[in-house]
Design goal:
Serine Threonine Protein Phosphatase 5, Tetratricopeptide repeat; about 0% strand; single chain; globular; about 250 residues; 2 domains; mainly alpha
């Protein structure tokens, strides 16, 4: 996986000094995103931790443009998810740091759909780590997601997170659960229609949405549909260990 080159880092710094709108070069931004997603998919906590550390140093050294902060927040979110999975103690801190990196972005642009969406995800996960604050944190997550949905009701990441939250909180067979399942199907469809490599739009969520839809279909007894979507998840992210495990369970039935 490629890393930020010295030239790219220099160009970012020059942009800041000249007062031009700072943003990562498209290719560098794509490479960073790919590194974050690969480390998450392969469940490589060490690699992801190194990425967080590297990005944190860049932010603290003055390269704190919105794009770089977003990548750092995304890396923190992914690190937190892996630490929840391994029951490590740093998950809460990672989700909290994710939120902290997104705050300056939202102070500059309160209508940043992607920042609102990622912040909602981090608040939701943080609620699972801080039980005494869970109600407040989930309320903040819901507020951010509601705002993002009002701004971009067909954004696949917004729909995916909205559907997953509603699926988790609703009873199978209820009208709410059925509606949430339809939203997850729409999210997967919209992910299929969107590029995962556009430089101006985050490209995460495809593999997770496909896997989530596959698991929902498997729970409904639709083994063929489940396998189709889990395999799509692995086409997008061939090294996605969670999808590999689910496919193995499905095949082994």
């Amino acid at each position: 996986m490629s890393r930020i080159t010295p030239l790219a880092a220099l160009l970012i710094g020059v942009g800041i000094l000249l007062g031009s709108p700072p943003r990562l070069d498209a290719q560098e931004g794509g490479d960073l995103q790919a590194q974050i997603l690969y480390a998450f998919a392969t469940e490589d906590v060490h690699r992801l931790g190194n990425l967080v550390q590297s990005l944190t140093i860049q932010v603290k050294s003055g390269g704190a443009d919105s794009a770089l902060r977003y990548h750092l927040a995304h890396a923190e979110y992914r690190l937190g998810l892996l630490e929840v999975q391994t029951r490590a103690h740093g998950a809460g801190e990672a989700f909290s740091d994710c939120i902290d990196q997104l705050k300056p972005i939202l102070e500059q642009d309160v209508k940043s759909v992607e920042a609102l969406t990622l912040e909602a995800a981090c608040y939701e996960q943080l609620a699972g780590q801080r039980h005494l604050e869970a109600v407040l944190l989930r309320s903040r997550a819901a507020d951010r997601l509601t705002s993002a949905y009002a701004l971009a009701p067909r954004n696949p990441r917004v729909l995916y997170l909205k559907a997953m939250a509603e699926l988790e909180r609703s009873r199978r067979g209820s009208a709410q659960h059925t509606q949430a399942f339809k939203e997850l199907e729409l999210a997967a469809q919209l992910f299929e229609e969107s590029s995962a490599t556009r430089p101006d739009v985050p490209g995460w969520g495809h593999a997770e949405a496909y896997l989530a839809l596959g698991m929902q279909l498997a729970a409904q007894g639709d083994q063929l549909g489940a396998r189709n979507w889990i395999e799509k998840s692995l086409i997008v992210a061939p090294d996605y260990k969670a999808a590999q495990r689910q496919l193995q369970r499905l095949v082994g039935r």
